[in-house]
Amino acid sequence: MLHVADAIELIRARTARLGCEEVPLAHALGRTLAADVASAEDLPAFDNSAVDGYAVHSIDLAGASPEVPTTLPCEVTISAGQADVAPLPPGRVARIGTGAPLPVGADAVVPVECTAHDETGQVMFVGQPAVGANRRLRGCDLHRDAPVLTQGAVLHAADLMLLAALGRTSATVACRPRVALITTGDEVVPHDQQPGPGQVRDSNLLGLPLVLEQAGADVAFTCHVADSAGELAGVLSTLQGFDVVLTVGGVSMGEADAVRPAIDRLGRVEFWRVAVKPGKPLLFGSLGPAVFFGLPGNPVSALVTIDLFVRPALDAMLGRLGGRRVVTGVWAEAVPSDAKRAEYVRVVAEPDESGSLLARHTGNQSSGRLTTMLGANAYGVIPVGVGAVARGDVAQIEFFEPGVLA
Ligand code: AMP
Ligand code: MG
Fold first, then answer.
1. Which of 39, 59, 253, 318 lies at a CB distance of 3.0 to 4.6 Å from 32, suitable for a disulfide?
2. What is the domain extent for residue 35?
């Protein structure tokens, strides 16, 4: 049986980066940047005040103290948005609002709450500000031509806000891989139907498209078929223009399992079975120009195999770096495990009182138990050859990537 890393390497080798498209910023959340972005402007574009206060020549306030305050005249108010701001003469201060342009000559702003003023318009200062205090200089956040975002970055709200602040109205993003997903099983009924005896609700058809969309895919086709290689082949042969085709269920050794015969007929099998738990029966291959994954039907196995194997394919198509954050922790409890397969135990990884990271499994790890996903934020990975772990053993913790399984 293939090891996880070898399977992923093979999958990556079979997937190529897709093209790109221009989308308005408001529709670019979660999309993948297809090209580096440099700043076309200085940000901020003009020197301005960081607080409501008084723009001053700091030298004018040398020697000011609570015991011996310095009093200066203020005859000018500068508001945010004001266009024509006169230079500040020495010996004068100007009332200034947050974000208002700093007058030429002023080298600091004293917050209004640190001052007092009298009815004659004189302002009392009780200390000398440092040069540059509460001043936001042009370009202090970003200089023109400075690198801002790099290709492969997933766009978050703050990234889009920065692009908007710099005058961009759209972003060049990777085209989303078009995905088709087909669930299988005679016993599987739509999730909004009451199952009859021996039937189960199709939780995969509900949830897996959501997970795939969160991982960057455009799930453009979904359906359910019975355990029939003929019916499955019928659907598969109608699919056009997909980058990834997924089936769920029917890929084990069961007599009814329809996936392998259908792919043998219509496509190519690259590998079948990986030394991993959950997810052993995973099948990978191709169907015309699309990469093909036959995922196991247990909902936990389907979720984990999407995360471990489909996601790297999507990442490669999107030009994303991807990859989980791996850290070392400690097993909080013993976990039985089979040394022949790498086990991806769903865990809650949290620091204990002493600060060391504890991996606590989420209960019986049977892949039939969907509750093992609840509350989990990481895998505790038990590599091939290790077998059962004991409380206190070193744990390899791989955090879920944000926005997908957690
Ligand atoms: P299979 O991989 O087809 O052998 O299915 C393994 C287990 O997952 C069986 O208990 C199925 O009933 C269950 N299962 C398969 N497909 C689904 C689905 N779409 N939704 C919920 N459970 C499923
Ligand atoms: Mg089945």
1. 318
2. 20-42+152-174
